[in-house]
Amino acid sequence: MAGSVSFAGPTVTPEYARTVARTAYLWGWPLVNMHNRRVAMNQLAEPGLLAGIVPAGPPGTLNMLGDYLRPEERLVACPDQDVVHGFGVLDGRLEPSVVQVPEFGDRFWVYQAVDQRTDSFARLGAVYRTAPGFYLLAHDSWAGSVPAGITGVFRYDTRCGAVIPRVFLDDTARDRAVIAPLVDRITMYPLSEFDGSVRIADRSSAPSFGAGSATRGRHERQWVDPEQFFCVLGEVLDEVPARPGEQALYARLRAVLAAAAHDREIAEVLRQAAVDTDAAVGELFEFRNIGIPVARHWTTRHNGAAFGNDYLSRTAMAKANIFAGTPDETACYYQDLDDAGDRLHGARTYTVHFPAGQLPPVRGFWSLTVYNSRHLFHSNELDRYSLGTRNRDLAYGDDGSLTLTVGGAGPSDPIQLANWLPAPDDEFSLVLRAYWPESGILDGSWAPPAVTPRV
């Protein structure tokens, strides 16, 4: 058969390899993304800050910020400024990690822990009424003894994962002072260092690691290089065990990888297929192309961080808004269009009107955030990127309604200015987040209001 090669494995034609490669890229993009984040964190010797602004640490540890993420951040798309963030990675080939949970009182908090598939595997947060204590994050293969003093154990089955603490912060100096001692008690460290005592982290001298891609460029850092995708996919297949029903998929992927190892033409077919398919993944970046349609052109998702075999949603969210929480932790609504179906553009002014009693139904809090066309913050003189519960100076109507304005020139009236979100003079997107959503969101009976252009 012309153009094919035979070796110890099955015969593979270039066209078959191309077809499988497209599936492999759409299926494996989030897994390779997570793999490459772990590899990057392996370069760090201790917890610190990338480029002085992004928390990071070697596998098995985490670091915390003491304030909101800065708009220069480029390591993750769709950052938010509602919470204080932390970040750490797990490596299942190392010993388990202990995460410390302090007493948060009635403050919203969650420690998101996701495996290499970006699925959550732990329930740690206000939503779950988690008690303060020490929690063990262990790979399924770990057969050691759980020491006394460990409050609970959560298992994961992939090589790597990520742990992302989030703690609500009012946009006030007073709340920053209140939250500081809580943040200092959010830690993660190897099990061998556990002695049952509460740790208080001194992050005042945390090192800053040079990482130009953490703050430079117009786009999120490129965590997946299509040119190199198939060079690491075999390693990723070893790191992420096949789920029930995936055995045949794994066999097809391994077959084309084996063929590529013996045939340069097949290897080139895989490389080119990854480059070509990356354009399709780019289309999934647009909010209007993904998720579940909601009224007035909004979209949402019902399986965030719980994707299972929904590979399309998994890759779409990994591209557009990786590390979004599970729906019971955070419901997200995404918007690219105004009420007429036209693309949002910062040259126009839009209103988002919540009638009295129709704010997002939450037990936690809510926010509306503006992103530029790359799903990153748009730097502005107000240093303002979202509005919501954390803002104590919002102006409500006499009837209890709330109208936010987005884009266009900033209002001159200070009262109206408090309700205004700056937008870039370009296409932009909105995300409405509802933390700890109530039944109106969970059952679909509530939906966000229209984004209406002002005439």
TrEMBL record:
Native organism: Nocardia fusca
Domain DUF1214: 332-438
Protein name, entry field: DUF1214 domain-containing protein
Source superkingdom: Bacteria
A Pfam family: DUF1254
All copies of domain DUF1254, residue ranges: 61-190
